[in-house]
Amino acid sequence: MHIIIDGYNLIRQSDHLRRAEKFTLEEGRHALIRFLIPYRERKGHRLTVVFDGWDGGSFQEERDREGGIDIIYSRKGEKADDLIKRMAERSGDELVVVTSDRDIGHFVERCGSTVVDSQTFEGIVAGDLPPSSSPSYGNVITGKEDGDLSQGTKGTKKKGQAKKPSRREREYNKRLVKL
């Protein structure tokens, strides 16, 4: 499984990593990589972290590798979002993209890959959140919680599952368990 991580998105969605970024962007990036290394060693997944080189980067993509994790900086004038989309389009692997950016999320899903929001992924990596109990990305996009009902019930107690998960949700949960 190949996991592509929207680096700054994950840092800014995490209380722990955001504290490191307050010192410098570089410290935030190093904190993220240090956070991911034990997870990569434990799971063996191929991890790629993508950062923006939009403002101060070079005119070519810069690549680095630390602790078995591939690190890519987009070229000057290109956002990490565009690079992630391009990678998702070209990927032939089983791909999971970690981001809370809805635009990237919708694009990646249309390409047939799975999207996991940054906070859910952080919880899985930290061991705070088992993959099987994670909320689906679709709920993050629409803003609806699992227990959020738009219509009330009339006092009848229903038995069983209210709704069979869609095929997309079942596929998502299968991939999420692998994380």
Short description:
The protein has 179 residues and is α/β, with parallel strands linked by helices. It has eight helices and six strands, in the order βαααβββαβαβααα.
What characterizes the major β-sheet?
A: 6 strands, mixed
Count up the domains.
1
The CATH topology: Rossmann fold
Structural class comes to alpha/beta
- Please tell me the CATH architecture by its name: 3-Layer(aba) Sandwich
The average pLDDT value, as a whole number, equals 81
- Helix percent band: 40-55%
State the end-to-end distance: 9 Å
CATH class: Alpha Beta
Low-confidence segments, given as residue ranges, are 133-152
Describe it:
By secondary structure, this protein is of the alpha/beta class. The protein has one domain: 3-Layer(aba) Sandwich (Rossmann fold). Helices cover 45% and strands 16% of the residues. The chain has helices at residues 7-13, 15-21, 25-43, 80-90, 102-110, 118-126, 137-142, 167-178, and strands at 2-6, 46-51, 62-66, 69-73, 95-98, 114-116. It has a six-stranded mixed sheet with strand order 3-4-2-1-5-6, with helices on both faces. Strand 3 (62-66) and strand 4 form a beta hairpin. Helix 1 (7-13) crosses helix 2 (15-21). The longest helix has 19 residues, at 25-43. The protein is globular, with a radius of gyration of 18 Å. Residues 133-152 have low confidence and may be disordered.
